[in-house]
């Protein structure tokens, strides 16, 4: 029946009345002759007939075959093909294969067993831990009970001794009262000492805070003074620079004025000398002329 159905495919059939089967339907039947004897066969119906008894006879052949197969009686029928289930066919192929059997059956079984073993081990470990916790709790409770017993026993013994002492003598009671008074006084003294020490500590804390504040104030004042000094030194330097520049400018101006005055004086003296010489020369010439 290839290529419509391959070898290993799983076909789902349904019983059907032979009278309803038509030409072209794919039927499944049990072979009873030749090579088909005892085999389940799927072939295509090519012709339908009835015998004298009214039974349906089906002429069939494979899709790829050219020769007609033996006639099939309706008693041999299983039914007609309804569906080709590829999923079931794939599963059957895996199960029939040696390696597929390992992967599909054996390995999951091993994993399931391993998971179950791990779970059981985990449950055992949890149970052991719970038992340890319970044991620890019981041990703690026993210890607490023992402590309570130890605390209660001396108290009861002390009460018995006090009763005996009261009945025997009153001196012991007086001594106990005196001891209690002494204890109270000592406790009062200790409390006073502790209060005095606490006061001293508080005073020391206040003094230390004040000293720290004073130190901070002194440091801040020193920083302010240093800043003021730096600023004043800078101002004096700038003033001195400006004054020096002014003095140099004034000196240069006075020097230049003096030089100009000296030059003018020298020029004027030269001129006066020249004039006097000329006057003398003229006088000489006039005298010579007069003598002649």
What does this structure look like?
The chain is of the alpha+beta class and 292 residues long. Among the domains are: 87 residues, SH3 type barrels (Roll), CATH 2.30.30; 63 residues. Helices cover 70% and strands 13% of the residues. It is built from 3 helices and 6 strands, in the order E-E-E-E-E-E-H-H-H. A hairpin with a 5-residue loop joins strand 3 and strand 4. The longest helix has 121 residues.
Output mean pLDDT.
76
Query: How much helicity do the residues have?
Result: 55-70%
Give the termini distance in whole angstroms: 183 Å
Second rung of CATH, namely the architecture of the domain at 10-96: Roll
Please write the CATH class name of the domain at 10-96: Mainly Beta
User: Helix/strand/pairing class, anyone?
Assistant: alpha+beta
CATH topology of the domain at 10-96: SH3 type barrels
Which blocks of ≥5 consecutive residues have pLDDT under 50?
none
The best one-word shape is: flat
- Major sheet description: 6 strands, antiparallel
Number of strands: 6
List the secondary-structure elements in sequence, H or E: EEEEEEHHH
What is the percentage of strand-forming residues?
5-15%
